[in-house]
Write a structure and sequence with these properties.
Shape: globular
Strand content: 15-25%
Helix content: 25-40%
Structural class: alpha+beta
Distance between the termini: 36 Å
Oligomer: single chain
Largest sheet: 5 strands, antiparallel
Strand order of the largest sheet: 2-3-1-5-4
Length: about 110
C-alpha cells in the first residue's frame, strides 16, 4: 500500500513538469492522435492520457510536454482547438522551482 502511495505521489510531481493541461477530450481520441495533433505546433516530447481502471476509458484530460517553450506559445496563440467536433480546453501549466517558491515566501 505504501508503494502505491509513493507511485501516485511521483505521478503528481511529474505532472508539474508538463507544459499544457488539456481537458474535454472526446472519448474516441487516443494519446497517439493527441500527440499527432499537437505536433503541428512543435515537437511533442510526451503525452500523458490517464485511464480509469474501472471503466477502461480515458479520463478525458491529458498533459502535453513540448521540447521547447516556443512550441507552447504556438499552441496558445491559436484561438480554439477542435478534435472530432469537440472544442478542447487548454491551460498552461505553471512551473516554479522549489528555490523560487522558497524565495517568494520569505
Amino acid at each position: 500500500m505504501a508503494a502505491a502511495k509513493a507511485v501516485r505521489a511521483a505521478g503528481r510531481r511529474s505532472r508539474r513538469l508538463f507544459d499544457i493541461f488539456v481537458a474535454e477530450i472526446p472519448w474516441t481520441v487516443s494519446s497517439k492522435e493527441l500527440k499527432e495533433y499537437f505536433s503541428q505546433f512543435g515537437s511533442v516530447q510526451r503525452c500523458q492520457l490517464p485511464f480509469d481502471r474501472d471503466t477502461g476509458f480515458h479520463k478525458r484530460y491529458c498533459w502535453i510536454k513540448f521540447s521547447a517553450p516556443e512550441y507552447v506559445q504556438n499552441v496558445l496563440q491559436k484561438d480554439s482547438h477542435v478534435l472530432e467536433g469537440s472544442k478542447l480546453a487548454l491551460k498552461q501549466q505553471t512551473r516554479r522551482r522549489r528555490s523560487q517558491r522558497k524565495n517568494q515566501s520569505d
